[in-house]
Design brief:
single chain, 255 residues, alpha/beta, Rossmann fold, 2 domains, 9 helices, P-loop_NTPase, transport, ATP hydrolysis activity, ATP-binding
């Protein structure tokens, strides 16, 4: 059964060229307590501070918070991109990530070769690989470009290939950022439909978003991050009214 356990998690990053940062931003970081020095006297920014929670089968979680609150850092740490400085994360189950459409993409290979490569890395059978390749080709609508090097693609074509490949198979755990909402209207419509299918079939969902509508539609739990801390953990009905300072009925009402 899939699960994610986050215990006493803290993440810090070196603050490079701190002398060039604005006085206002530096003052804010000092006041909020997010700056510290390590044993080598280097200044570090604390992106996440003592985060604790457990996700189980059926949890569909929305990550909210202002820019810089730590949402993307938390996602990247749960997927193994970043290593915890303090604490640990335990993930049980298969994961699919929608954080960066170009993640793991080899720009020197063709689109089709990238599909085969990813399927090989994930241990898919020849039949599964063929089904995935057909699904990606159909979704991306790249046609003959699928057999050209990815470096020749426009950014929109790269997005369609990366998204199609990342969403070809519904995982047990789905983690995603808001990048999938970028692109032309036609792509967004297709992407949303495909995402909704993945959301329904995934056993655990974690999405970083500023959209209360998305949370109300897809999520049954909300984690509110504030200055690196987990400020609140509850249902959308509990968290969103406090976060947005308005009644839940106003948040979800249709125009």
């Amino acid at each position: 059964m899939p699960s994610i356990t986050v215990k006493n998690l803290s993440i810090s990053f070196p603050l490079y060229h701190e002398n060039t940062r604005s006085l206002r931003k530096m003052t804010h970081l000092f006041i909020s307590g997010r700056l510290r020095q390590d044993q080598h006297k280097k200044i570090l920014v604390q992106s996440l501070r003592d985060i604790n929670f457990t996700l189980r089968q059926g949890d569909k979680v929305g990550l909210i918070g202002q820019n810089g609150a730590g949402k993307t850092t938390l996602l990247r740490t749960m997927t193994g991109i970043y290593e915890p400085v303090v604490g640990h994360i335990r993930v049980e189950g298969s994961i699919s990530t929608l954080l960066d459409p170009n993640a793991g993409m080899n720009f020197g290979l063709t689109g089709r070769e990238n599909i085969y490569l990813k399927c090989s890395i994930n241990g898919y059978s020849k039949k599964q690989t063929q089904e995935i390749a057909e699904s990606v080709a159909d979704f991306s609508e790249l046609g003959a470009y699928l057999d050209l090097p990815v470096r020749t693609y426009s950014s929109g074509m790269q997005l369609r290939l990366g998204f199609g490949l990342a969403t070809a198979i519904a995982p047990q755990i789905l983690m995603m950022d808001e990048w999938f909402l970028t692109g032309d209207a036609g792509f967004i419509q297709k992407a949303t439909k495909r995402i909704e299918n993945m959301v329904q079939n995934s056993q655990i969902l974690v999405i970083s978003t500023h959209s209360a509508e998305t949370i109300a539609k897809w999520c049954n739990r909300v984690l509110w991050l504030d200055q690196g801390f987990l400020k609140m953990d509850g249902t959308p009905e509990e968290v969103l009214p406090i976060y947005l300072n308005k009644p839940y009925e106003e948040i979800v009402k249709k125009d």
